Amino acid sequence: MIKNSLGINLPEYIEGYGNVKPYMGAFANIENTSYTATRKNAFSKPNTKKLCLSIKESIEKSELKNGMTVSFHHHLRNGDGVMMAVIETIYEMGIKDISICSSSFTNAHENLLHYIKLGVITSLHTSGLRGNLAKEISTENVLKKPVIFRTHGGRARAIEAGEVKIDIAFIGAPACDEEGNMNGSEGKSAFGAMGYPMIDALYANKVVAITDNLVKYPLKRISIPEIYVDYVVVVDSLGDPNLIASGATRITKNPTELLIAENAAKVLIACDAIKNGFSFQAGSGGASLAVSMFLKDYMAKNNIKGSFASGGINAYLFELYKEGFFESLLDIQTFDGSIANEIAKNDGYIEMSASMYANPHNRSCVAHKIDMMMLSATEIDIDFNVNSITGSHGMIMGALGGAPDTAAGAKITLMTVPSIRKRMPIITDKVTNIVTPGESVDILVSDRGICVNPKRDDLKEKLNNNNIETRNIKEVYEEIISLTGIPSKVSYTDKIVGVVEYRDGTVIDIIYQIK
Amino acid sequence: MIKNSLGINLPEYIEGYGNVKPYMGAFANIENTSYTATRKNAFSKPNTKKLCLSIKESIEKSELKNGMTVSFHHHLRNGDGVMMAVIETIYEMGIKDISICSSSFTNAHENLLHYIKLGVITSLHTSGLRGNLAKEISTENVLKKPVIFRTHGGRARAIEAGEVKIDIAFIGAPACDEEGNMNGSEGKSAFGAMGYPMIDALYANKVVAITDNLVKYPLKRISIPEIYVDYVVVVDSLGDPNLIASGATRITKNPTELLIAENAAKVLIACDAIKNGFSFQAGSGGASLAVSMFLKDYMAKNNIKGSFASGGINAYLFELYKEGFFESLLDIQTFDGSIANEIAKNDGYIEMSASMYANPHNRSCVAHKIDMMMLSATEIDIDFNVNSITGSHGMIMGALGGAPDTAAGAKITLMTVPSIRKRMPIITDKVTNIVTPGESVDILVSDRGICVNPKRDDLKEKLNNNNIETRNIKEVYEEIISLTGIPSKVSYTDKIVGVVEYRDGTVIDIIYQIK
């Protein structure tokens, strides 16, 4: 066993994962002596047809074999019909032992469980996992190999570094021409920015575009160019358009959340974070949206114009951009179907790859340019470590997303949580699993006041100068458990069901099977 | 010695070049078992500054050493001040034995000769070479190592395949932010499409952006993203804006050229090449422009709308696009300064990388989608082999450009030449050097009629059916030499001054020093 710098014990080697590099600090792993991954060179002649008559044909031509890795992206959200159509075809073709490297999984992928039980799928790499699939892995260890959890930046990094070798990338393309030039912003299945597979396409040995909207060559706005695409399959539909375009985020109406949001906005203003040219990322949650709403008022009154908002862009941020509150938007994944077409139409609405968003092992990334970011999570502890992958019960039920990436990069990272949820303390002595290390988290705003990470006395001073009271997080914790009691510890078996990679490829935590 | 399939003797190994793979046919080298190049992984933290105070600082930080390779692009044309500023700095820093891999050289680079003589520059990779520099290499072998000539597609291929390893790519950026997001279409030095360095940036170990227009982060229209850029240098000027923006192509007024152009247009129409949805590439020469003019008349009268025009896009093609004669433009390098800003403003005006344009060892390229392309050259022979790199006197004086790429890809390749220039036969028994193999050239239109490559009897039949007379190219040649006489053969030494690579990395010809 080895210990990482957060005191977590890690095996030196994990079956189904490999050698473990322990997390030693947010910027400790300086990967500047190794080289990027390669992909096979190809060959083309005039009149070579990429169009395949079926997904099956594209898989045959791509020479998928037992034990290989296929990749997907989750921009089609709960409406995604692509991944399951491919997996079903793989099953029908009798291919087994497949690893899936997806940017995430959604409700649309619940049926993976079936193919895991059949041995078709034997490994999952993802940012998040929820629902019954997550439950069966957490409690029954149905997958046997640990799920490898990566941040959005970490996934791009792992692919670029060759740590994940994608044999075939399947890309759902709402607009695509016969050579595979594609984008995500046109057609009945438009979802918006296409940031995740932009990296898969660069490094996969084979790339298959699956589209329900074959356009005349050449597609005019190209997010992934034809040079990376081997095959194009036209299907009737990429999934359920209503669910693809859904997910409109709404501002919370919960009074506690609104209060937290209002306080968070006050804190950010007092920290002098809201000034001309500031940049900003908020999560997709209703509370983050509420903070944005309060900030907008302040910006309007004080004539403040921000630089950029980044991340998953939602309709509210787009509205702020259109109203001139931000000069530009940097988008990896559009959260609202209602703005899926906008990226093509607005000069300042910029599509970025996952690597540009947050890969720490490139020459720079957007995550490192953010002035302030807000996140919420399932738990935070007295060392400001944040959990967003498991619940207090130890069950996998969340995602890493880009939070560890942007928390590391942002000048100020502010976390909002309710202090208690369903009688469980959300501010705890020790989070069930660590996803974002405390060193990246500066301020906590909950319904029990404001806590500042002791390493940020500068911010505490600013708050105090603005007559904003701060509290010691340990006091808050004590207050909470005086109400809830100390919850009983989760019992685990010795089976590892998940490995949580930090964005730099080190292991920040391990998830064990629940007893 | 080995022979390539065009009967040219090649050494198996060339000092300063390496092992020779002989050309064996336009699509014979199927490079689908090797892998793409890699580059060093990097590392970034928030607040890391890429801005350097000088070119010197960027070179120091990039750790340039004797014997390394630096790359440039020639989009700044005759106004380019970037390359010479970098080379002068390298000289001042005492660094020697540098290879330059540039997309091409222009008049702005004449002074390289000085640095070659000083031993600072010892190897050149380029698409073309002209002027005194070319003369001294051809006649005096001043460089000692052969110049390596590559097509635009071949250069992209060589970089992607790792055959050229770029240590530092210097990119002149008319618009750039502090993290290196850049484009070529904004600012006082705007030149338009940035197709060449888009590939250098992907594979160079270090990338330096040099700009005279530092914009607020993030730049909105991004041709090369920050993730590939190590350093940014702000200079007063990228060169002479008048010469950067110059190069407006004009339609020829020479009556012979106009007659050839008119006949070329008739031939293309008779071959049924000009119909709805056709795609098209014309060179930058005045004759090609004249053909476009005749075609426009025909298209207007017959209500024909083309699909795309590709290549270097000139103002006349842009006009055709604006008038609706073509649906889109695919541009690697904008030929006219007057349209340098247009790529950012027109939906159908698409920027493409050199790899997307013409790399034959990717999954596809635009060159392979072209219905018909027109080229001109210095010589063509009775086997339809084309020379555009040397004159009849054997002197280096031209460029490969994208001609071999698009000639190979296009369904119909039409060549226009005057049959005699300065009393020298332009249609010869054997071209001085082969750049584009005869198998890629279908039709020759000169002032002595129309010749069709015997392998294209289908086209000959179409022409004859339309009452267009064709001639045997050997008869035309005999007729020409009956007027000019047979020119005396060029005498060479046994020193190799140039290696002409075909687009697939094989050697199609060798250029020897002139006696």
Kindly list the characteristics that best describe this protein.
homodimer, 515 residues, Glutaconate Coenzyme A-transferase, 2 domains, ten-stranded mixed β-sheet, five-stranded mixed β-sheet, 29 strands
How would you briefly describe this protein structure?
The structure is a homodimer of 515-residue chains. Chain A is 25% helix and 22% strand.
Question: Would you give an account of this structure?
Answer:
The structure is a homodimer of 515-residue chains. By secondary structure, chain A is α/β, with parallel strands linked by helices. Chain A folds into two domains: 51-243, Glutaconate Coenzyme A-transferase; 247-489, Glutaconate Coenzyme A-transferase. Chain A contains 14 helices and 29 strands. In chain A, the strands form eight sheets. In chain A, strands 5-14-13-10-6-7-8-9-28-29 form a ten-stranded mixed sheet, sandwiched between helices. In chain A, α8 packs across α9. The longest helix of chain A has 17 residues, at 286-302. Chain A is globular, with a radius of gyration of 22 Å. The model of chain A has no long low-confidence stretch (mean pLDDT 95).
Number of helices of chain A: 14
Spatial order of strands in the largest sheet of chain A? 5-14-13-10-6-7-8-9-28-29
Question: What is the fourth-level CATH superfamily of the largest domain in chain A?
Answer: Glutaconate Coenzyme A-transferase
> What gap, in angstroms, lies between the N and C termini of chain A?
22 Å
Strand residues, percent of chain A: 15-25%
Task: Please tell me how large the radius of gyration of chain A is.
Answer: 22 Å
Oligomer: homodimer
What's the total count of β strands of chain A?
A: 29
**Could you list the spans of chain A in which at least 5 consecutive residues all have pLDDT below 50?**
none
Major β-sheet profile of chain A: 10 strands, mixed
Name the chain pair with the biggest interface and residue counts per chain.
A-B, 65 and 65 residues
Remind me, CATH topology of the largest domain in chain A?
Glutaconate Coenzyme A-transferase
Shape of chain A: globular
Mean pLDDT over the full residue set of chain A: 95
